[in-house]
Amino acid sequence: MLKKIVHSPYLNLFSGVILLLTSGWETWNSLDEFSLAAHHGVLVFSLVQILRTIPEIIHGLKEIHESIEPC
Question: With contact defined as beta carbons under 8 Å apart, do 27 and 40 qualify?
Fold first, then answer.
Protein backbone atom coordinates (compact mmCIF):
# COMPACT_ATOMS: atom_id res chain seq x y z
CA MET A 1 0.00 0.00 0.00
CA LEU A 2 2.72 2.47 0.96
CA LYS A 3 4.74 1.57 -2.15
CA LYS A 4 1.72 2.39 -4.33
CA ILE A 5 1.33 5.79 -2.68
CA VAL A 6 5.03 6.64 -2.93
CA HIS A 7 5.19 5.74 -6.63
CA SER A 8 2.00 7.60 -7.55
CA PRO A 9 2.68 9.93 -10.51
CA TYR A 10 -0.02 12.34 -9.31
CA LEU A 11 1.56 12.65 -5.88
CA ASN A 12 4.98 13.18 -7.49
CA LEU A 13 3.54 15.80 -9.83
CA PHE A 14 1.80 17.58 -6.94
CA SER A 15 4.96 17.63 -4.82
CA GLY A 16 6.99 18.84 -7.80
CA VAL A 17 4.57 21.70 -8.43
CA ILE A 18 4.60 22.70 -4.74
CA LEU A 19 8.41 22.66 -4.72
CA LEU A 20 8.47 24.66 -7.95
CA LEU A 21 6.14 27.31 -6.57
CA THR A 22 7.92 27.73 -3.25
CA SER A 23 11.45 27.70 -4.66
CA GLY A 24 10.38 29.91 -7.56
CA TRP A 25 9.00 32.43 -5.10
CA GLU A 26 12.22 32.36 -3.10
CA THR A 27 14.33 32.71 -6.26
CA TRP A 28 12.19 35.61 -7.49
CA ASN A 29 12.60 37.42 -4.17
CA SER A 30 16.38 37.05 -4.28
CA LEU A 31 16.94 38.25 -7.86
CA ASP A 32 18.57 41.49 -6.68
CA GLU A 33 21.24 39.53 -4.76
CA PHE A 34 23.54 37.33 -6.81
CA SER A 35 24.10 34.34 -4.59
CA LEU A 36 23.70 30.62 -5.08
CA ALA A 37 21.49 29.09 -2.41
CA ALA A 38 19.56 25.92 -1.66
CA HIS A 39 16.36 27.15 -3.30
CA HIS A 40 18.11 27.09 -6.67
CA GLY A 41 18.78 23.38 -6.26
CA VAL A 42 15.22 22.76 -5.15
CA LEU A 43 14.01 24.64 -8.25
CA VAL A 44 16.04 22.37 -10.54
CA PHE A 45 14.90 19.27 -8.64
CA SER A 46 11.25 20.30 -8.93
CA LEU A 47 11.57 20.77 -12.69
CA VAL A 48 13.12 17.30 -13.03
CA GLN A 49 10.39 15.83 -10.82
CA ILE A 50 7.65 17.37 -12.95
CA LEU A 51 9.28 16.33 -16.22
CA ARG A 52 9.68 12.78 -14.91
CA THR A 53 5.98 12.38 -14.12
CA ILE A 54 4.57 13.81 -17.36
CA PRO A 55 5.23 10.69 -19.52
CA GLU A 56 3.65 8.43 -16.89
CA ILE A 57 0.50 10.54 -16.75
CA ILE A 58 0.27 10.81 -20.55
CA HIS A 59 0.66 7.03 -20.85
CA GLY A 60 -2.14 6.50 -18.35
CA LEU A 61 -4.41 8.95 -20.15
CA LYS A 62 -3.77 7.17 -23.46
CA GLU A 63 -4.70 3.84 -21.89
CA ILE A 64 -7.92 5.34 -20.52
CA HIS A 65 -8.75 6.82 -23.92
CA GLU A 66 -8.10 3.50 -25.67
CA SER A 67 -10.28 1.61 -23.19
CA ILE A 68 -13.33 3.83 -23.78
CA GLU A 69 -13.02 3.96 -27.60
CA PRO A 70 -15.84 2.15 -29.35
CA CYS A 71 -14.75 -1.01 -31.13
Answer: yes
Alpha-carbon distance of 12 to 43, in angstroms, equals 15
Could you give the number of structural domains in the chain?
1
Which domain does 46 fall in, by range? 1-68
- Tell me the pLDDT of the chain (71 aa) as tens digits: 888 888 888 899 999 999 999 999 998 988 888 888 888 899 999 999 999 999 988 998 899 998 987 76
Task: Report residue 65 CA to chain centroid gap.
Answer: 23
Q: What is the pTM of this model?
A: 0.76
